[in-house]
Amino acid sequence: MEGEELDSLAAWQPAAGRPWLVASAKEGQRLVLFDADSGVRIGASGGPGDGPGQFRRPNGVAVSGDLLFVVERDRHGVQVLHLPDFRALGHFGRDELELPYGIWVDASSADGMTAYVTDSFMADFATAQLPPRERLAERVRRYRVSVDSGGRLQARYLGAFGDTGEAGALRMVESIAGDPAHGRLLIAEEDNRVGSTLREYSMDGRFLGRNLPPFEDDAEGVVLWPCGDRSGYWIAVDQLSPTRFRLFDRISLAPAGSFTGTRTTLTDGVALRADASARFPHGVLYALHDDHAVSAFDLGEVARRLRLSRACRR
Length: 314
Hints:
Elements: E1 6-12, E2 20-25, E3 30-35, E4 41-46, E5 58-64, E6 67-72, E7 77-82, E8 87-92, E9 100-106, E10 113-119, E11 140-147, E12 153-161, E13 173-179, E14 184-189, E15 197-202, E16 207-211, E17 219-227, E18 231-238, E19 244-249, E20 255-259, E21 270-273, E22 284-289, E23 293-298, H1 299-306
Antiparallel strand pairs: 1-2, 2-3, 3-4, 5-6, 6-7, 7-8, 9-10, 10-11, 11-12, 13-14, 14-15, 15-16, 17-18, 18-19, 19-20, 21-22, 22-23
């Protein structure tokens, strides 16, 4: 799909029917929809504008239940839509976010959802000049989000975080994902001037002192592959040509292998569906290919080829 510039992915499984894959199209300024099993494009939603259901450079996307969260970089906020009708429920973050990119939503608490949004504002965007070191404490912003009985979006700003030390600072940040079972966030540091990597933070925003081994190129999308109650793997993008997908043990974060596709290159966003479907009985990893197509990797085949935990091969 030339001219769309696809960026991020999110999977959604309706209560009845076939699964969907939603892709943000930055240049098209809309969302593109695929049948998540066949790969067939089944529609689109949105378009450029400032009204409900319209977008200004949509970037990160995330799904929680029947809610779709869409980060809008150029409208400096997050719009929330209801699925499957893409009805706009409202937005949040426009009073705080400056240049938002990525999002991860934690729905593990009975108190409601917490949205983590990365904010990669610069002193000078054109030259990638970083803001003052003290402002790196605002790299990730948290929001408590819910929908009331009348279908109205409710959102409350919980504050920002980011380490300002040399080892833990988030200089250029986009991708973020979490693992509530282990109290961990992995956040991609994309500034190759200091070495691109994934930094480990706590769920409340403290740098935990550990960075994963340096990536060869940009650390882009990152996603958790749960296998069983607490085990599994992290899969992270090393934005090479072809893309290298790096795996890390869910518990120890030790490297657990890597793989490439025959064509997939320069990947930005990824999404993972661990539940079985007719085409992917062991789950599937979706990955963007060069901003204009989507690849799918059978997780059962990945587990067999890399000799991963037997829990991931079922």
